[in-house]
UniProtKB/TrEMBL annotation:
Signal peptide: none annotated. It comes from Pseudomonas jessenii. The keyword Oxidoreductase applies. This is Catechol 2,3-dioxygenase-like lactoylglutathione lyase family enzyme. It comes from the Bacteria. InterPro entries: Glyas_Bleomycin-R_OHBP_Dase, Glyas_Fos-R_dOase_dom, VOC_core.
Length: 156
């Protein structure tokens, strides 16, 4: 018994269509089937799995309350710092973000073999995109400070 993996995350928003467009065109998720809820929204898929559920806080408030509880939408991540996605195609993503004028921060952490990009969705939620680190890969976004990583056994 135990946790196997993250199944999905849900964003409550007044901007559900803009949020779906961002995750499709910027992040690379695909819109897909969603149950016929009586409130607007959509499900976004990665590798055939519904990773992101977007729920509009507009529409049928009783239906939304029944599904998600009585909690308002908002802006930003609240207590959640960021959502992290394992990705591939670093150079293509860097080029796509630059061509779309999307600001992003970037760093490499060779000790854990990661190249990380951070950007904000239309709701102010920080999205981290993690790529496998390849020696010689370039940072083209805003460079973030280098981190000292302690790989001693007590921290692994």
């Amino acid at each position: 018994m135990g946790v196997l993996q993250l199944d999905h995350f849900t964003i409550r928003t007044e901007q559900w269509a803009e949020t779906a467009e961002f995750f499709e065109h910027v992040i690379g998720l695909t819109p897909g089937p969603r149950p016929g809820f009586r409130f607007p929204g959509c499900w976004m898929y990665a590798a055939g799995h519904p990773l992101l559920h977007i729920a509009s806080v507009q529409g049928d408030p009783d239906e939304l309350k029944g599904y998600l509880g009585d909690k308002p939408g908002g802006y930003g991540s609240g207590s959640l710092d960021h959502v992290s996605l394992r990705c591939e195609g670093l150079e293509q993503v860097q080029a796509r973000l630059q061509s779309m004028g999307i600001a992003f921060r970037e760093r490499v952490i060779p000790q854990i073999a990661e190249h990380q990009l951070f950007l904000e969705d239309p709701n102010g939620i920080t999205i981290e995109m993690i790529f496998d680190y390849v020696p010689g890969s370039r940072i083209v976004g805003q460079a973030m400070p280098h981190l000292a990583v302690d790989l001693s056994e007590k921290n692994l």
